[in-house]
RNA sequence: GGUUCAAAGCGGAUGGUCGCUUGGGUCGGAAUACGACCCGAGAGGAAAGUCCGAACGCCUCUAUCGGCAAGCAAUUAUAGACAGGCUAAAAAUUAAGAAUUUCUUGGUUUUUAGAGGUCUCGUUUGUCUGAAAGGUAAGGGGUAGCGGGUAAUACCCGCCGUUGCAUUGGUAACAAUGUAAAAGGGAAAGUGGCACAGAGACUAUACUAACGAGGAUUUUUCCUCGCCAAAGGUGAAAAGUGUAUGAAGGUCUUAUAUAUGGGCUAUCAUACUCGAUUGGCAGCAAUGCCAAAACGUGCCAAACCCUGCCUGGCGCAAGAGCAAUGUUUUCCGACUUUUUAGUCAGGAAUUCAGAAAGUUAGCUCGCAAAGAUCGGCGCAGUGAUGUGACCGACAAGAUAAAUGACCAUCUCCUCGUUUUUAAUUUAAAAACGGGUAGACGAAAUUCGGCUUAUAGCUUUGAGCGAAAC
RNA sequence: GCCCCUAUAGUUUAAUGGAUAAAAUAUCAGGCUUCGAACCUGAGGAUGGGAGUUCGAUUCUCUCUGGGGGCA
């Protein structure tokens, strides 16, 4: 589990991401991403623009359609979270982004190593 | 020893690195902000399904109950009871004055009497709390043998009856024993249904066939009347509990001069059987046993319904509080800009401020301690369960939602190879190597149940089975 | 999380507890046409799974599974 300040939780942020974000497709994971520096006009007025621009929020979405079983869905989420936590620790992800990882149906039963490769691949495509 | 079924129990352990949620402490800090460090806690037997029952919370009702107020009435009441106070009388005691074995005035106490008051019985209206003062009437919903346990109409235990299966007995109807199952009031209150087939499916009796008489006809056959309700086939179910024996009657029939014999049977009698009724006995009761006589009623209520009993509604996204943010619409105001325009006024758009309404999101509490709690032991009970000045255990609390990721070791399980033993297959043991906790499934206010899913292991019971030694 | 509704041919809808479960459309085959469409004729195809009540269940009851909806 990565720290609380890096979690994407607010509906406001999700709406921003879905309205203005970009979509990157992978083998069994999709990535929705939003570079905050590109949309300064839509920042909430209460927030400090400079601080807002430099945050890094990450969310994970595993829907019911992936699997009916809560156990499997939770396991996928935990694996992704652990990989992202280690990456954050090593400062491998640039700040100033909203990221949302969305699991596809093929993600059921994948190993830890495969998730690691897929996420590295997706993060590499950002630029 | 194997296998199947049922019931009960278990549902990996220890450690390392890096993290998350949460409680406490220390330090820094103005600080209950925040940060650092230390110590502790952190998914299940079903946490699941949401099928029942509760706790808890909010809402709603008033014809029942409670409080308060007002009115009316009071014919067990022209009554009874009563704390303190008031008035009068008497007695005792005390003080003052007059007088001297006494008198007057006042106080206190006790007793008696009286006036007045309160209560004892209702009723109407208003109002308030109130669902632990109430759940009655109607309506709606639920439930259903008896007894017990439980906070509980959930659920559990025991028993009774019913049904299925097996065995035994009996000519048979049926009975006894064992075992299993279940949502088990009422069909002897009413309504309704019982397809197809069949004469007929509940005030049935038509049809075919048989017999007798008459008529038509060469015969075959047909028609009418009588006799008769026995036989037939249909169907899940067939006419009234069924079985056996006997009597006399009816009908048909064989032989025969008749008597008589035989088949079927409405009816009657006797014995047994089933159900219901009444009486007696046993049992807490459901119910069982015995007896009697004037009893004989198809099935379906998981069809409508009737009877008894229970029941206000909604649910933690309940609900309480905080803050007034984002956004939409409308209204009003301001001024800058743009546009319309020759100019002014006016209109439209944009921006800012305010108000109202709607919508969406947020934070805190509810919500994490200990009680209808769980286990052991003793006692009571067939059991569910109850009980104890007995012993012990119990601090998860997230919210795009924590309890994790990656490893190491050990057992459990499993695959392969080799060796040894008994040896045809094969079985057991040991060693080595590989896979490695591998099934079902993760808290979301909290409990009690039910249902469903479940690799593997352990225990108990029942059945099957006769392979190997 | 809590509370509800629902399940019939590939799809959309019927069927009072009663015989072989009805219709439209879609699919397939044949006809018509030079070929296709339209049209005509015909065929196949279903009560979500499992129990129970009943002589008999799409229908009544229970349970599991799937689908859908509401609640701040």
Summarize the structure in short.
By secondary structure, the chain is α+β, with helices and mostly antiparallel strands. Helix content is 38%, strand content 19%. The radius of gyration is 15 Å and the shape is globular.
Summed up, the domain count is 1
If classified by CATH, what would the architecture be? 2-Layer Sandwich
User: What is Rg?
Assistant: 15 Å
Tally of helical runs: 4
Task: Briefly note the CATH topology name.
Answer: Ribosomal Protein S5, domain 2
Poorly predicted runs: none
Multimer state? single chain
Task: Summarize model confidence as the mean pLDDT.
Answer: 71
Fraction of helical residues: 25-40%
SSE arrangement, N to C: HEEHEHEH
What characteristic shape results from the CA principal axes? globular
Approximate strand percentage: 15-25%
Across the major sheet, the strand order is 1-2-4-3
Question: Care to count the β-strands?
Answer: 4
Specify the biggest β-sheet.
4 strands, mixed
Name of the top-level CATH class: Alpha Beta
In whole angstroms, how far apart are the ends?
26 Å
What structural class do you assign from the helix and strand content?
Answer: alpha+beta
């Amino acid at each position: 589990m990565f720290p609380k300040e890096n979690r994407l939780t607010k509906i406001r942020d999700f709406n921003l991401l879905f309205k203005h974000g970009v979509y990157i497709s992978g083998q069994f994971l999709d990535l929705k991403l939003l570079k905050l520096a590109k949309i300064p006009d839509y920042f909430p007025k209460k927030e400090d623009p400079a601080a807002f621009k430099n945050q890094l929020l990450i969310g994970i979405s595993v829907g019911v359609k992936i699997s009916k079983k809560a156990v499997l869905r939770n396991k996928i989420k935990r694996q992704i979270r652990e990989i992202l936590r280690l990456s954050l620790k090593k400062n491998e992800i640039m700040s100033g982004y909203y990221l949302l990882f969305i699991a596809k149906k093929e993600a059921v039963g994948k190993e830890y190593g495969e998730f690691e490769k897929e996420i590295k691949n997706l993060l590499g495509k950002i630029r």
